[in-house]
Every structure is written in structure tokens, then in C-alpha cells.
Amino acid sequence: MTAPRRGGRPLPRAFYDRPTLAVARDLVGKVLLHRTADGIAAGVIVETEAYVGETDPACHAAPGPTRRNEPLYGDPGHAYVYFNYGMHCLFNAVTEARGFPAAVLVRALEPLEGEPLMRARRGRPHIAARDLCRGPGNLTRALGITLAENRLDLTRAPARGPGLWIEDRGVRIEALAWTPRIGIRVGTERAWRCFARGSGAVSGRRGVTGKSEARSKKQGERGRAHRAPAAR
């Protein structure tokens, strides 16, 4: 992975308004930033998972529209943050056209800015840097992402004050791998987890090659083709 350049602009909405597997792939290497009154915490995304439509049993949209999953049916480029198992907030970026429910879960980061703040939030002053944002629950704790950030527009970076967005800082990932998604009980046959090979911050199993990107894309297209009309 190449070193990131300083500064950047939020990714445009068009970046998210694409097939979810393409967004999951292209988010690896981008920089997720959260600015609060405590400061900025940011990291390079090294692991993602795609959740695609009502026909994906692991997607929150599987039962159809609900109040909880409403952001998934909205405009692409917004945050979908939810409380998982009564323990962790998890951060997702909404993808694809309005009305089609899909998102990318960001599972892990390599810390880039605000490492002392991340350590304070985690309450782990001596933890290795690679473990600060390793796993989606650890990531949100380290960055201070809560349910208050649900539905935020990721395409805007306020000049001052709180903000949550993703930038392209020119990081180039040398090699990616695709595997089945982890931490779920259904839809585990879909190889929709993408990560940067060689990154110590990747959660779960790192030595599994999984299916090819082409096969993953085909599964994603099949999920879109068979989706039910989205009601709002």
C-alpha cells in the first residue's frame, strides 16, 4: 500500500451510485474521516463487505422496508449506522440508485490521523496501532461514530465543526482479495468481502483467497436482477 497524500475532497455521490461490489472494491484504499469536538480521527479503509438488495438474506433490507433500514432505500452516499447485538455501532456507506437497498460495511482501517484520540476512545493505551480499528465495532469506537451519524451525507465535509466523510488520497493497494462475508449466519456463500492483502489491520481470516472478483460481480448482478420492487 502506497503512502497517502495529505488532504483531499469527499468522494462525490457518483462514486456511490454504482454497483455495490464495485464500490466495496474501490473503497479499499480510501480514507474515512470523522471530525468531532475532540478532534479528527481517520484511517485508510482496508476491509469492506457488500450487502445487496432484498434478495440478500444478510442485508437488512431482506424483510423489506422498515423504519430501521430506511436509509438503505435513500440516496447513495449517505451513512447507514446501526446498533448491532446491543454492543456496537457499525458504519456503512449507502450505494446504488435511490429505491434499491444496498450498502458497504466498512470493517477495518489502518490508522492515519488522531491515533492518541483513538486510543483514548478504545481505552487501550498500549494496543498495537493495527488493532485500533480492526473490526467494525472497534472501528466505530475508535472514530467516535455513533447512531448520531446515521443518515449523514458522506459527500460533504463541513469547513468547520463535526463531519463524517470519505476521501481519495491517492493510496494504491497492491493486491486485493475476495472471500465470503464473516460474522453472519446467512448469505455466507457470497464472496462479497474485499480486503487489502498484507494489511495487519484486516479482521477475521486473512489467508483465504475466496472467489474471484468476476464471480463476485456475477453474484451481485444476479441479486440486482432478482430484486423485488422497492416500496417506500
Chart the SSEs and their pairings:
Elements lengths: L12 H4 L3 H8 L3 E6 L2 E14 L26 E6 L3 E7 L7 E12 L1 H8 L6 H4 L3 H8 L19 E5 L8 E4 L13 E4 L16 H13 L7
Antiparallel strand pairs: 1-2, 1-6, 2-5, 2-8, 3-4, 4-5, 7-8
Helix pairs in contact: 3-5
Outline the structure in words:
This protein is an alpha+beta fold. The protein has one domain: Roll (3-methyladenine DNA Glycosylase, Chain A), CATH 3.10.300.10. 19% of the residues lie in helices and 25% in strands. The protein has 6 helices and 8 strands, in the order ααβββββαααβββα. It has helices at 13-16, 20-27, 115-122, 129-132, 136-143, 213-225, and strands spanning 31-36, 39-52, 79-84, 88-94, 102-113, 163-167, 176-179, 193-196. Strands 1, 2, 3, 4, 5, 6, 7 and 8 form an 8-stranded antiparallel β-sheet that branches. A hairpin with a 3-residue loop joins β3 and β4. α3 packs across α5 (136-143). It is globular, with a radius of gyration of 16 Å. The chain starts with 12 loop residues before the first helix and ends in a 7-residue tail after the last helix.
